[in-house]
Each structure stands twice: as structure tokens, then as C-alpha cells.
Amino acid sequence: MRVLGLLAALMLTLAWPAAARECGPDATQADLGDCAGEGLRKADAALNETYGRIMDRLKPDPEAARALREAQRAWIRFRDGECDFATIGAEGGSIRPMLVAQCRQHLTEQRVTQLRRYLSCQEGDPACPVPGAG
């Protein structure tokens, strides 16, 4: 019976590796890094979804789509460079990957907010480059 219990616990751990992750005050640095990475993955997923929605609306305007693509590439270079700079004090330390992920998550969440505003512009707003959902 004890073997079955251990086997069941092992299967649960393999099936849900995130459940074993500790992100609280008793977390290891590796756990914290994993948590930060997960936060960044979620922010990136939201960014990609929002960017895709805008690009769909820009299909009739290839010039606007090109401009957004270039702006997004420049923004990614900015985000990554900014976070490299902001975490330079932790260079070589085990905490740096976590700090970089947290920084990128924060800036990515700000970018998602910015892009989502484009999706809800008022009809006829000349300062909005994205047409309404029409």
C-alpha cells in the first residue's frame, strides 16, 4: 500500500510540476526564478494575443501593419536592453535571471495595456492608428 501511495504522489508531481513550485517566503532561488519565468510567460502570451488582434484589424492597411511590426521589434529591443541595464548590479549572481524576468514582465504588462488602448479607440479618433472592430 505504501508503494502505491508513493507512486501516486510521483505521478501527481510529474503531471502538475507547477504544483510543487513554492513562490512564498520559503521558496528557494530556483523556485523564485521559475515563478518569475511563469509570470513573464503569461505576460508574453497576453502581449502576443493583443498584438495579433491589432494586426488582424490592420490587414487592410499594410503600411500601418508594417509600422506596428517595426515599433514592436524596437520595443522588444528596448525592453530587453532596459532590463539588462536595470539588473546590471546583480550581474553574475543567481538572482539576476529572476530580476530580469520580473523587469520584462512589468514592462510587457505596460505594453499590453498600451496596445489594448488601441483596440478601444473611439470611432474617428485621429490619434488612434487602429480601426474599430466594426
Automatic annotation (TrEMBL):
<keyword id="KW-0732">Signal</keyword>
<dbReference type="InterPro" id="IPR009739">
    <property type="entry name" value="LprI-like_N"/>
</dbReference>
<feature type="domain" description="Lysozyme inhibitor LprI-like N-terminal">
    <location>
        <begin position="26"/>
        <end position="115"/>
    </location>
</feature>
<dbReference type="Pfam" id="PF07007">
    <property type="entry name" value="LprI"/>
</dbReference>
<protein>
    <submittedName>
        <fullName>DUF1311 domain-containing protein</fullName>
    </submittedName>
</protein>
<feature type="signal peptide">
    <location>
        <begin position="1"/>
        <end position="20"/>
    </location>
</feature>
